[in-house]
């Protein structure tokens, strides 16, 4: 499972993981707002085939907020650096997704 981390180290990992999970929640909320606005008001198309049917329904927001809330709950139980690294990668991917969404919004809004 990786090197053993002392209690203080585990606490630090959990604080970091929780901060990352909260960032993931914020990025998901941003993604929902930008996607809904772009699709509903500017005529954009959701290209993610899993999310496209959910655009314009309460399920999109529920899913995009619910999953990060579960991640926040799980972040309080993290015990390894590997878990924090994996969560960091997920957050980095969502930063790119949010940047693409904002870029599309800027392009469509011009």
3D architecture notes:
It is a single chain. By secondary structure, this protein is mainly alpha-helical. 75% of the residues lie in helices and 0% in strands. The protein is built from three helices and no strands.
Termini gap: 51 Å
Regions with pLDDT < 50 over 5+ consecutive residues? none
Structural class: mainly alpha
Outline, from the CA principal axes? elongated
| Average pLDDT figure | 89
Helical percentage? over 70%
Order of helices and strands: HHH
The amount of beta strand, in percent, is under 5%
C-alpha-based Rg, rounded: 16 Å
Contiguous helical run count: 3
Tell me the total number of β-strands: 0
Could you give a short account of the major beta sheet?
none
Task: Briefly characterize the structure.
Helix 1 runs antiparallel to helix 2 and helix 1 runs parallel beside helix 3 (81-109). This protein has helices spanning 7-42, 58-75, 81-109.
Give a topology summary.
Elements: H1 7-42, H2 58-75, H3 81-109
Helix pairs in contact: 1-2, 1-3
Give the key terms.
110 residues, mainly alpha
């Amino acid at each position: 499972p990786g090197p053993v981390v002392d209690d203080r180290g585990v606490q630090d990992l959990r604080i970091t993981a929780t901060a990352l999970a909260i960032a993931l929640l914020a990025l998901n909320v941003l993604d929902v707002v930008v996607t809904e606005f772009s699709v509903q008001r500017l005529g954009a198309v959701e290209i993610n085939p899993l999310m496209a049917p959910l655009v314009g329904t309460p399920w999109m927001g529920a899913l995009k907020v619910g999953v990060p809330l579960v991640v926040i709950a799980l972040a309080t139980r993290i015990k390894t650096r590997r878990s924090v690294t994996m969560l960091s990668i997920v957050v980095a991917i969502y930063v790119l997704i949010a940047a693409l969404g904002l870029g599309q919004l800027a392009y469509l809004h011009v």
